[in-house]
Amino acid sequence: xxxxxxxxxxxxxxxxxxxxxxxxxxxxxxxxxxxxxxxxxxxxxxxxxxxxxxxxxxxxxxxxxxxxxxxxxxxxxxxxxxxxxxxxxxxxxxxxxxxxxxxxxxxxxxxxxxxxxx
Amino acid sequence: xxxxxxxxxxxxxxxxxxxxxxxxxxxxxxxxxxxxxxxxxxxxxxxxxxxxxxxxxxxxxxxxxxxxxxxxxxxxxxxxxxxxxxxxxxxxxxxxxxxxxxxxxxxxxxxxxxxxxxxxxxxxxxxxxxxxxxxxxxxxxxxxxxxxxxxxxxxxxxxxxxxxxxxxxxxxxxxxxxxxxxxxxxxxxxxxxxxxxxxxxxxxxxxxxxxxxxxxxxxxxxxxxxxxxxxxxxxxxxxxxxxxxxxxxxxxxxxxxxxxxxxxxxxxxxxxxxxxxxxxxxxxxxxxxxxxxxxxxxxxxxxxxxxxxxxxxxxxxxxxxxxxxxx
Lengths: 118, 327
What we know:
Helix content of chain B: 40-55%
Number of strands of chain A: 2
Low-confidence stretches of chain B: none
Strand content of chain B: 5-15%
Largest interface: A-B, 56 and 63 residues
Number of strands of chain B: 5
Strand order of the largest sheet of chain A: 1-2
Oligomer: heterodimer
Shape of chain B: elongated
Mean pLDDT of chain B: 90
Radius of gyration of chain B: 27 Å
Largest sheet of chain A: 2 strands, antiparallel
Low-confidence stretches of chain A: 1-6
Largest sheet of chain B: 5 strands, antiparallel
């Protein structure tokens, strides 16, 4: 890209820093996955705290990959929003309807108290 | 083009296309929108996986019990270590990719070549590892029994340790059940591979080994699979069981609900296909770098574009790792 040829400074130090962050997060995830601490077994919105913890760490990793490796932080606000907001909105919606529906079918199979109207 | 488009005299003006609000080249912008649409495809798959998992929330297979192999450590229970290693390999190949992009910005051809090469190697190792994971998954380890209703019954000792079919079965040497092949009987009709043991051999062995119990798929409140009493085990085995399952395919698998295997094959397969095509595209760009295409072009934006794709593949893996192996 035209304006990229202009600057020649190297981002190597920053790249390695992000690599360490991603590695540490992965190690923490694996450690918790093996340890499975008791106190994280309590549920919050029909999921264990441990699972929420994993999902939040995953989103942190996704943020670093997108912002730093894919250089999203350097793009214009317009492109950033066009990609990120669209994705987050549609994916959240999709997850919400599918998981709600899955839970509903589980209840129907289990108890049969709900009517079969799916 | 110049013959078909009339000049309006507004070239370079805002309304003449002179305004580039996103300040990014066409190719890079389209790569971003491709990635967005691909991300929606993957999230569709993962959300469908979540749907099925919520539907069978109290009987879904436990990933730690399924993916517990590590190369050269036979029989050692090593949950997640190998996928964690695969994750590192992919993250590291992402790092070398971004280093290649960085070197490209500084027009250092030699460095771009080195880093692209390392990226390709990392991708190849990852695809190979995934193939190995598939092999273990398809082959299975212990084997199980399938019931009339399609449920999976596994065998354990009283202390909860799994027992393989081969340690249970009492082989009946007089069996006359032959596999039906295309060349005999009805023409051009054949059947799938016969299991190593018949259900009667397993029943006989189970009756003899009085310390064995049956484990169902139902998860108890501690998140462990329910183990039946000896009487209940015998009853399930003698009345409900209809067949043997060894390993996994799209219709049956010894780990639990068939959906688990279906999603595993489909999602990791689709991701593996992305890694494979990423490696192929990287190789093409790698050779372009070597022959100096981008030196002559005086910019390495093409490396940046394949870099975006490659990082996206890594991004997807981060989510697949979480939802298949951790959660």
